[in-house]
Amino acid sequence: MCREKVKSLLSRCENLGLIRAIPRGYIILEDSFLLNLNGTLEDRVYNSIYKYCLEKEVVPPNRYEFSSKGNPMECDGLLMCAPYIFDRWNIYNAKAVRCKEYPPLMFEAYINAILLPMRFPTLPEEPHWEYFKKVFFKHKYKNKKATNSRDVYKQ
Fold this sequence. Notes:
Shape: globular
Order of helices and strands: HEEHEEHHH
Structural class: mainly alpha
Oligomer: single chain
Helix content: 55-70%
Radius of gyration: 19 Å
Largest sheet: 2 strands, antiparallel
Number of helices: 5
């Protein structure tokens, strides 16, 4: 296939909203490529982060990495972040029920409306799982440290 034909087909796909140009290539925008829409916790977290990255016009992180034998496996960043996000959602909903200042949210709604915009108002051009882990766990450590210092002053 010649360069002009490829360029023409890519342009048509962009115009149809199937792909978008990103640094070093293209990203597929068709929803059918999201995995297991209501599957595991990791599926739900990845799909939310994937969509958020597309809204911010950045390259989403890879879902899989490859073992030394070449077998695909889920990234450890996703496996670490998913339970943390689930815990944050539970805390948010517990406060919502107790205080009645705001309504409880479904899991994906919390991620999309509260967590990601609050923690990631801007994203680098190609955020990787290390970036997400750093932001999530750095914030968690700061809160824990602040809580402990308040407890010291109370004594």
